[in-house]
Design goal:
There is one protein chain. The protein has 167 residues and is mainly β. It contains one helix and 22 strands. The chain has one domain. The chain has an eight-stranded parallel β-sheet with strand order 1-4-7-10-13-16-19-22, with no helix packed on it. Strands 2-5-8-11-14-17-20 form a seven-stranded parallel β-sheet, with no helix packed on it. Strands 3-6-9-12-15-18-21 form a seven-stranded parallel β-sheet, with no helix packed on it. It starts with a helix and ends in a 6-residue tail after the last strand. Keywords: Signal. This is OstA family protein.
Length: 167
C-alpha cells in the first residue's frame, strides 16, 4: 500500500505530461500583425478584424469571420483557409496544404500561391485577382458577381462552374 501511494504522484505527473501537447496548442485570434511566428493551432480572424500574417507557419486552419480582412504573405498553412462573408482576402506567395474556400465576400488578390487541395469561390462580389497560382485539386466557381483577372494559373484537377476555361 505504501508503495502504491508513492507511485500515485508520479503516475499523475506522467498523465499530465502526456496530455500537455494538446493543452499547448496555441490557436490565435488575430487582430493586428503576426510576423515570423509559428501558430500551433488555428488562426481565427474575428468578425470585423484585420489580420496581417507575414513569414509565418500556421499549423491548422485559417478562418475569416464576417467583415474580416486578411493579408497572408510568404507563409505556410498546414490546413484549410476559409472565409465566409469576409471583407478582403489577400494571399500572396503562400503554401496552403489543404483547401481554399472563399464565400460571400468582397474579393481580394491571390497571387503566386500553391494550394495542394481544392479552390472554391462562391457568391463573391467586388474585385478578385487570381494570378500565377498552382492548384493541386479542383477549381470551382459559382454565383460570383465580381470583376476578376485570372491568368498564368495551373489547375491539376477539374475546372467547374464560372471558372471553366480560366487559365
Amino acid at each position: 500500500m505504501t508503495r502504491l501511494r508513492a507511485l500515485l504522484p508520479t503516475t499523475l505527473s506522467l498523465s499530465a505530461a502526456l496530455a500537455l501537447p494538446t493543452a499547448l496548442a496555441d490557436s490565435v485570434n488575430c487582430a493586428g500583425n503576426l510576423n515570423s511566428r509559428t501558430v500551433r493551432g488555428d488562426l481565427q480572424v474575428r468578425p470585423g478584424a484585420t489580420c496581417t500574417v507575414l513569414n509565418s507557419r500556421i499549423e491548422g486552419d485559417v478562418e475569416l469571420g464576417r467583415g474580416a480582412r486578411l493579408v497572408l504573405r510568404n507563409s505556410t498553412v498546414t490546413g484549410d483557409v476559409e472565409g465566409k462573408e469576409y471583407a478582403q482576402a489577400s494571399i500572396l506567395g503562400t503554401l496552403i496544404q489543404g483547401d481554399l474556400s472563399l464565400e460571400r465576400g468582397q474579393g481580394g488578390q491571390l497571387r503566386n500561391n500553391r494550394v495542394r487541395g481544392d479552390v472554391e469561390f462562391e457568391d463573391n462580389r467586388g474585385r478578385m485577382a487570381f494570378a500565377a497560382n498552382a492548384v493541386g485539386g479542383d477549381l470551382e466557381c459559382a454565383g460570383n458577381r465580381w470583376t476578376y483577372s485570372f491568368y498564368n494559373n495551373s489547375v491539376s484537377g477539374r475546372q467547374q462552374g464560372q471558372c471553366v476555361n480560366w487559365k
